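4.2 Preliminary Data

To establish feasibility before requesting continued support, the project team ran the inverse folding procedure on a target of 114 residues. The structure was first converted into the token representation described in Section 3, and no sequence information of any kind was made available to the design step. The complete token record follows.
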């Protein structure tokens, strides 16, 4: 159930989105050590974002996963910021990341919960 939601003020051409999503899906699976078949990506480009009083390239990211180890969130932050820099030229100081590890009984899938 790893889920990555990426909101950015960068416009991403519709034809470039599938490849970006595929790269992000692989990256999240590798980062968390989870099967890619469970990874969900939500991309919201071209959003109205103002960070630090400027509309320079920025991103808000949510990473949710069952059992997400809190001790590894600094590593995940570093990896995600590096990836956003490579992919979208967003500086790390222009990224906020929210990490969440929902309880298994509060996350549903396939007509049940985990």
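Position-by-position output of the design step:
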């Amino acid at each position: 159930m790893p889920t990555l939601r990426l909101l950015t003020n960068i416009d991403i051409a519709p034809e470039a989105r599938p490849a970006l999503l595929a790269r992000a899906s692989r990256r999240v699976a590798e980062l968390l050590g989870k099967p890619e078949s469970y990874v969900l990506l939500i991309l919201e480009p071209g959003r109205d974002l103002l960070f630090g009083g400027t509309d320079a390239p920025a991103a808000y990211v949510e990473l949710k996963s069952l059992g997400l180890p809190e001790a590894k969130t600094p590593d995940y932050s570093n990896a995600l910021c590096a990836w956003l820099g490579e992919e979208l030229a967003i500086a790390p100081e222009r990224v906020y990341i929210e990490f969440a590890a929902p309880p298994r009984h509060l996350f549903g899938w396939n007509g049940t919960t985990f």
